[in-house]
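Standup notes, structure subgroup. Blocker cleared on the 2-acetamido-2-deoxy-beta-D-glucopyranose input:
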Amino acid sequence: MHSAAYFVSAIITSAVLLQVSSVDAIISLYGETIEVPCNKGAAMSEKPLLIKWKYDKSDGSPGDILTKASDPEEANIQATNNYKDRVSIAPNASLLIANATLDDKKTFTCMVVTMGDVKEYPVSIEVQKRPLPPQIRDKAKELENGKLTTLGECIAQDAYPPAEVIWSKDGLPLVDDGKTIMVTMDKDVDPATGLATTSSKLQYRAGKGDVGSEFTCTVKHSLGPDQTSDPQTFSIHYPTENVNLHVVAKGHIKEGDNVTLRCKADGNPPPTSFNFLLKGQKETVVGSDTYTLVGVTRDTTGEYKCSLVDDDNMQDAKNISVNYLDVSLVPSGNIVKTVGESLPVTVQKNGSGEVKVSWTKDNGKLEKQPKFDSLKYVDAGYYVCDFSVAGIKQSRSFQLLVQGKPSIQRISKDRSEDGQHKVLTCEVEGFPKPSVQWSVNGTNEESSYVNGWLTHKITVVPTGNLTVTCSASNELGEDVKSINVSSLFEEKEKLGEGKEDDGDDQAKLIVGIVIGLILAAAVVGLVYWVYMKKSKQGSWKTGEKESGTSEESKKLEENNHKAEV
Ligand SMILES: *[C@@H]1O[C@H](CO)[C@@H](O)[C@H](O)[C@H]1NC(C)=O
Ligand SMILES: *[C@@H]1O[C@H](CO)[C@@H](O)[C@H](O)[C@H]1NC(C)=O
Ligand SMILES: *[C@@H]1O[C@H](CO)[C@@H](O)[C@H](O)[C@H]1NC(C)=O
Ligand SMILES: *[C@@H]1O[C@H](CO)[C@@H](O)[C@H](O)[C@H]1NC(C)=O
Ligand SMILES: *[C@@H]1O[C@H](CO)[C@@H](O)[C@H](O)[C@H]1NC(C)=O
Ligand SMILES: *[C@@H]1O[C@H](CO)[C@@H](O)[C@H](O)[C@H]1NC(C)=O
Ligand SMILES: *[C@@H]1O[C@H](CO)[C@@H](O)[C@H](O)[C@H]1NC(C)=O
Ligand SMILES: *[C@@H]1O[C@H](CO)[C@@H](O)[C@H](O)[C@H]1NC(C)=O
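Run returned:
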């Protein structure tokens, strides 16, 4: 079996008809199996007698790898070096080399021997490797404002050809400018594998603007897409340049509020201690940036400052103004006054601004402050005075009662709706509520009492001509008035001054009776005299008119006529 191969190879070495095609180039991946195709894998027109794979040694001499004859179809490995265990041939004549290394960068040639032809197909192989994902080492803990600091070192490991490393800040590449950005590249080749490790050290002069900036490192390689590290952020140290004092309060500051002073410095890390100057008095606060004024008063008003503990000049000031409101109202509480009296109302107010004053009486708004020169029953009520200034509200109040003895304002009579009765109405002013008494018994008693005005009604059936009396009383006194009610139904009649008239009429009645008695006595005397005289004559004549109150009769007659109309 070997004899045939040797025979063929003897022909080949002496061959004159050798044909060599142009060189193909293939890139293989490090560590994987290299497949070197023979004639680009094209199908052979004729079954070859022999296929031989060889390579160019560095000195130019050929290095045999393997041969495969058509019969027996078994590869014969000639290589004695490290290819011995790594090579094999595929059915389609491709040479397979396991575990590619950089040393496999060679030109391999496939020689195909057919019955009258020998062809050679050289393929140049290059082995490459993609780097491992980038790693950032020696990362800086923090950056000092304006100071060139090594931010970190980015490593792209085991690549061929060597990888390129680029630093970026917030997605924009950082280019070495020799001042704020300095990038030091280093390349290290592993002598055993020939793979390169690229490292890039970034030195950076951070500014305050770099707070929150994201630094990344990107590795570029011919094999595959860019690989980017996780973003890194750095805390940046810088000294305080500004101090700000904030007054923390809800809306207007008023007496009794708690007011918090907060001191803010823009340095990083922020200062942890501050001096608070409270109207000249110094308080040092450690481990906090606030100072609380508890329960402020109007005396708290003034200028407040805060500063850095180690630098008094780094300070800020704010004025605090505390609003206040002092009010008083005279009278207050429960006030009882008699109708007709006066009641002075005095309001005093003193606030940190213009004080707004408004009044209500029994929850109804009043246009202006009430004034009581002569109290009326309607003035009684619950008075509230509301004061407000800059978010402070206060109110004062008094309850006013107006009292007075009853005074009958009106007494009247009306025909009832059914025409059978009379409705008598007595209207009385007074407080406390007067009680009303009529001189007759009535039905359907009705009474209402509003603002010291009592209206009392009864329904009566007059059995004759009556003088009806309404008497009203409370603990302060009594008032009485009368009205004449006839048994006949008269037209509506109102009498305002009935009582005085009654007195007048009684006087007239008495005078009338006295005159009547005198006249009667005179008449009796005259009659006796005439009788004595006529007794001798025997006849006398009686007067037609009766003695008595002629005036009263006339009046009653008039009334009778009116009712009949
Ligand atoms: C040759 O065969 C191998 C394995 O049998 C296969 O992976 C490869 O794709 C083939 N090559 C060509 C060029 O057809
Ligand atoms: C290829 O390398 C792997 C590990 O790197 C090893 O286990 C294997 O035996 C090697 N194969 C050959 C044919 O050398
Ligand atoms: C003010 O602070 C004191 C003590 O912290 C607290 O008791 C009081 O309720 C606070 N007053 C107000 C109006 O928040
Ligand atoms: C506080 O008020 C005083 C007097 O009105 C004034 O001189 C001072 O400048 C004010 N301070 C601030 C911080 O406004
Ligand atoms: C108002 O109150 C302030 C502060 O208590 C005081 O200085 C001022 O004299 C008062 N004014 C009047 C009119 O009472
Ligand atoms: C009113 O009625 C009562 C009994 O109901 C009686 O005692 C009284 O005399 C009556 N008064 C008048 C004025 O008629
Ligand atoms: C009521 O009637 C009497 C006589 O009965 C009379 O004297 C008096 O003037 C009358 N009063 C009124 C208010 O009419
Ligand atoms: C009541 O007075 C009227 C006149 O005003 C008279 O006509 C009538 O007779 C009187 N009735 C009684 C019962 O006295």
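Discussed briefly. Confidence is low (pLDDT under 50) at residues 1-16, 490-505, 538-565.
Next: hand off to the docking folks.
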